[in-house]
Write a structure and sequence with these properties.
globular; 9 helices; single chain; Rossmann fold; alpha/beta; about 220 residues
Length: about 220
């Protein structure tokens, strides 16, 4: 049974499967999945100034400045559909952002961080094999979920392409940023007894089951 309030932060390196697991958890807990990366890519597609700036940074594997991210998150978690909770995917990515998120969350309830552990070599293989549909944004993986026709989207027939941030050189840069900026959050949430770590390798369903077991151990699933 879903809890009345769930304020979850889903963590893990790029390519850990956070988006997939966040969707599953959102359905299970009946709270929205908030992907800050997806929100920034939407801005980039619209051609806004914020989107253009964010895209330049993301294409190089760099983090978007705190003030931009904080504004986006503040507006989103203040929306009515977040009254029962939310699952944040892609934020916070630094201790400063985590501190700001605690202030934003205020009296809404405690935050719990879920961390997916995935080795770097698995991340590189996953991301470098990922393809995205240019028109509709559908995602494919050349190994685990390839399109029926090479380079053609099953859903809309659009062109599939490799995002700039899925190139192997950029993946290495993203992993270095994650190790430097985001891994310290494990200790941050661990000291607050607000961290659940699970093995992020294996099938989608296996990882989801581990997350549910971790949440159940905290009375939150």
């Amino acid at each position: 049974m879903a809890v009345s309030r769930s304020h979850l932060v889903l963590m893990g390196p790029p390519g850990a499967g956070k988006g997939t697991q966040a969707d599953l958890l959102a359905e299970h807990l009946r709270v929205p999945h908030i992907s800050t990366g997806g929100m920034l890519r939407d801005e980039a597609q619209r051609g806004s100034e914020l989107g253009k700036k964010a895209k330049r940074l993301m294409d190089r594997g760099e983090l978007v400045p705190d003030e931009i991210m904080l504004g986006i998150v503040r507006d989103r978690i203040g929306a009515p559909d977040c009254a029962r909770g939310y699952i944040l995917d892609g934020f916070p990515r630094s201790i400063r952002q985590a501190e700001d998120l605690e202030k934003l969350n205020g009296e809404a309830g405690p935050l719990l961080a879920l961390s997916l552990r995935v080795p770097a070599e698995v991340v590189i293989k996953r991301l470098s094999s990922r393809r995205t549909c240019r028109p509709c944004g559908a995602m494919y993986h050349l190994v685990s979920s390839p399109p029926k026709k090479p380079d053609v989207c099953d859903r809309c027939g659009g062109e599939l392409y490799q995002r700039d941030d899925d190139r192997e050189d950029v993946i290495h840069a993203r992993l270095e940023v994650y190790r430097r900026e985001t891994e310290p959050l494990l200790a941050y949430y661990g000291k607050r007894n607000a961290l659940v770590e699970v093995d992020g390798t294996g099938s989608r369903d296996d990882v989801f089951q581990r997350l549910l077991e971790g949440l159940a151990g905290r009375g939150a699933a």
